[in-house]
Amino acid sequence: MTASPHPAAHLAQLNVATLLHPFDDPRIAPFVEMLDPVNAAADGTPGFVWRLVEEGEADATGLRPAGENVIVNLSVWENQEALWDFAYRSGHLEVMRRRREWFERHVEAHLVLWWIPAGHIPTVTEALERLADLRAHGPSPRAFTFASSYSAAEAAEDLRAAVPAHPAEAAPPAARP
Amino acid sequence: MEHIEAIAMLQDPVRRRLYEYVAAQGREVGRNEAAEATGVARTLAAHHLDRLTEAGLLESGSRRLTGRSGPGAGRPAKVYTRTKAERSVSLPARDYRTAAELLAEAAEQAGLDAGLCAAARRRGESLRGSAAPCGDLEEAMKMLAARGYEPHLEDIGGPEDADSAGAAARVVRMRNCPFHAVAERFPPLVCGMNLALLEGLLGTDGPVRARMDARPGECCVVVDASKNNDD
User: Fold this and answer.
1) Which pTM does this prediction carry?
2) CA pair distance A161, A59, nearest whole angstrom
3) Is the Cβ pair B111, A105 closer than 8 Å?
4) What's the CA gap between A147 and A84, in Å, rounded?
5) Using CB atoms, which residue from B111, B185, B214 is nearest to A93?
6) Interhelix angle for B113-128 vs B187-202, to 10°?
7) Looking at chain B, which residues constitute the CATH 1.10.10.10 domain(s)?
8) A87 touches chain B (CB under 8 A)
9) Which CATH architecture is the domain B3-82 placed in?
10) Chain B: nearest CA to A142, how far in angstroms?
11) Which of B34, B88, B146, B206 has its CA 20 to 30 A from that of B69?
């Protein structure tokens, strides 16, 4: 064990957005035009670690793992403050401000945050599971939002409680005859 | 300390000048600078700056202002900034913040961005009180200061950004967001509302324009000369 009680953790983020029109529709064009500069800004933001891109493409808008008309945004950040400042205190805010022009209003949660070990690259499947967890159970150390967030330490504690370190201690009682 | 006691600290005119000077700089301010800027003796300024810090209106730290370090650099100097905490007093007690948060939460869930922005634009227009749009950046500064935005001018870019008259491009930035607490909770909704309010206040077809250019720690809107107004 190192001196640190918790291994380094990074924050993963998924959001899903349902397009009001096809991606190549002129009404979506202002959004498409902002993609490259905003993604470049993300890549250069202090605390940015990784974002999902489609192989051979500049972004992930062509991937539709959550539905034909649903674009996904999956990224990893060093901490919540870095992600918040990028999302709401950079050129990205202008995209967010105009979201109703391009995307349907979501009744359910459309953004989920969760802690991952530093170095881990989240899969789309894992990300959609976290979103489903948030939608089913509300915010928890496993899957949360900006407004009701949990620290990496709380997430680690939650994980320890759910998965005991010594499996023998958690072994079910011997089957009754 | 109770809010009313902290606010009452500012009744002293020297303290109030010191507080307003430190707040207006948007950076750490040393005792000497604050004393010179407000025209009081350094020891008196130091005393009042520390009283303001005890009251929670300022925060203090220490910095080596000379840029030197190591032996011979001297003692670090005490520096002051405005605290982020909000202070307010309402008599009789009112709680508009809870009302604002609840209304914003409902508007966010219902997706009422467009309706909110339309209302904000109308309010901005009626606050302007004149048919003519705001005439220039100096007038915009006055209007924004009157609404608590704490505007300041910033030069941007090099000669390539200079206008046809050869002046460096300037932009009005604002240190204070009057809607801070709700803007932090519902940024796209409330920042969009704020932009619409300022568009209404300054006009969208005049010599200046409000646009979004968010940056950590400041209002997300900037005001600059309209590009479409060149003649």
Assistant:
1) 0.86
2) 37
3) yes
4) 11
5) B214
6) 30
7) 3-82
8) yes
9) Orthogonal Bundle (1.10)
10) 21
11) B34
